[in-house]
């Protein structure tokens, strides 16, 4: 099957996924008892005020009609208005998502930068001290709750040895860079504001590390396993026999092949990172989607929850598609079998 | 290998970066006050905002006709210098003080007052309920404004001191889009005559207030006030202890206890008018029988809850009107923890093998332990109580529909008047969501509170409310548990803070300063 037909097929599937998610979240949110009007008008609102707010939100209409309106809005890219922040959900997501993506990408880069060398080293020195140490790090990363680990690091590097900031995206008093992408690192560079750039980078270190650490184990173990497989292959032995140095064989021949199975893993890991970001953001007062979603769930802010679920599922499907496509490019066999 | 060889370079770079930015923290600056808040305020619009979290911004940015006098719940002039009431109590005329200006330099006049009240009424979004009987606002002359009421409303003056009574610059209307009366703009900006104005708002991150250069009062000590949004309590605490925040709010009792030993930190704990109580479903058997309701009231371990759950940071209620508000009856009847009496009352009511449910949410951290304690007490007198933990909006919906046995409640008055308790909790026309959540009706009580609402003389009103409480205490439609202390923590360098029980999460930042 060709690349193009695969993409087309997956995009059609995407429509069904989003439609399914919309129906499920809408149904659930309307099954849970709760009056969104009261959330807006307050605990002591009079009956007239509640009726007025309900009418304003269109909640006085039959549920089926509300669903039709919701779908119509959805098709025009309108995710409705948040009950809690009173702002368009799409605008809120556009505002908070970049912060989460910046954190997630930084964590992924960190996890790869530490995890890949660690995995390679533990494969080369199998059962040696490096391998053992890597094993401990992996198990610790997978089993330590993000919540606890984050607070422990804040206590260590913010309170005991105060060299890193404990919260926020940028130092108080330094203006955030003008918003272009919403990524502080990118925007500050575009604006040529080095002070903001360093401050943002500096604020990223702790939360990104906490988030990376949880995924480090999976990446390390995966790289180690596929590296061990590849090192057994005939072509590696041939390359060595031909006189290539050990490091050249590992870096130029073994590693690229060992990385292929890891691509899938990275796609999944990125999903995990976004999920882990919810807790990390809460601890580090990181103004991203995580804290937005937690607040929305706590107040049963349906439009916000539904909007986020739809965008998240869309993102998941697209990342999976990207992973599969990368895979096809890297490994021609899949294209033929697919 | 290649990566490893570069490691020292990376480490040196990291260290350099760290030292460059680990300079003195911003919060130690004497001119800047940093307050850590748990949640981003929903809006700063006096016409729509109903949360204390939003009042944090609205109070310093706007002035009102009258204001609370320091720590007291009586009101004194703010924008109005004097006022008169017509003999029939159907109109109030206010004379505005001169010299008050909005943050753009335009004067606060009668037209601005009219604009603000017309807008609140038109938006009908919650704050409008503060002035249920305001029919019309008339501009008499630029310095005089008249309110016409459709019926006498005794707490009117007190209601003017609330967030809903904030006076907005009519020029805000220029920011209106699609007929929203500038709702979108005023949600994140301010247009008031208060000591401060909102100068920047980064959602979920921080809000910056700058002084209003045209403010009529004394110029504030702070050049800037920053509200930082830090959801996690442990993080807020570390920020305060490290000196990166000057004040943090919403401190749970256990954390307050732990922070007492932190150097440079002061714990402020003040008796508030925030009450925690239980609704008993009066229209549903067996709670339609006063004896059963009294039995439940005798089964609550008040002292245990105050000392254990609240660690002493609360006081048992005595009647519906809390201590600290006029209309409170210091001689009023108080239920005690008496299981024998409770058992006897149930037997008198002819009720046995009672199986009930307790509906609560996590919105108030005291509710679950209160339920568990009550469950244990009731088990001793043969009553089985199931704990029903639901989302807060779900709880409200179940209560509004009367679909519960016992449910948890918490209440704060919006204005300093016993009306906020008596004419809401016990008014049969406000059953369900609006406030009479026990679905209680006693014609004698209805009569007394209706009289009190139409009476202007405060002494007479107070007596009517105390008489009504004598009956409601006996009828026990609610289990009156305790009134909480309001706890927050600040650096010892912060001076001039005055707590007013009507202004929860509102800080008098215009009068505060820092000593270092």
Task: Write up this protein.
- The complex is a heterodimer of chains A (338) and B (516).
- Chain A is mainly alpha-helical and 338 residues long.
- Chain A folds into two domains: 1-84 and 299-338, no CATH class; 97-296, MetI-like fold.
- Helix content of chain A is 78%, strand content 0%.
- Chain A starts with a helix and ends with a helix.
- Chain B has 516 residues and is an alpha+beta fold.
- In chain B, a hairpin with a 2-residue loop joins β6 (134-141) and β7.
- Mean pLDDT of chain B is 91; it is low at 1-5 and 12-24.
- The chains are: A mainly alpha (338), B alpha+beta (516).
- At the A-B interface, α2, α3, α5, α7 and α9 of A face α1, α5, β10, α6 and α12 of B.
Shape of chain A: globular
Derived structural class of chain B: alpha+beta
Distance between the termini of chain A: 6 Å
| Backbone shape of chain B | globular
Largest sheet of chain B: 11 strands, mixed
Termini of chain B, distance in Å? 52 Å
- Mean pLDDT of chain B, nearest integer? 91
Q: What's the number of helices of chain B?
A: 15
Low-confidence stretches of chain B: 1-5, 12-24
Order of helices and strands of chain A: HHHHHHHHHHHHHH
Query: Which class of the largest domain in chain A in CATH terms?
Result: Mainly Alpha
Number of strands of chain A: 0
Using only C-alpha atoms, the radius of gyration of chain A works out to 24 Å
Q: How much strand of chain B?
A: 15-25%
Quaternary structure:
heterodimer
Helical proportion of chain B, percent range: 25-40%
CATH architecture descriptor of the largest domain in chain A = Orthogonal Bundle
Gyration radius of chain B, to the nearest Å?
Answer: 25 Å
Per DSSP E runs of 2 or more residues, the count of β-strands of chain B stands at 19
What is the total domain count of chain A?
2
What is the largest interface, and how many residues per chain?
A-B, 66 and 64 residues
Transmembrane segments (chain A): 12-32, 103-124, 136-159, 201-219, 258-284, 304-330
Main location (chain A): membrane
Pfam family, one (chain A): BPD_transp_1_N
Membrane topology (chain A): Multi-pass membrane protein
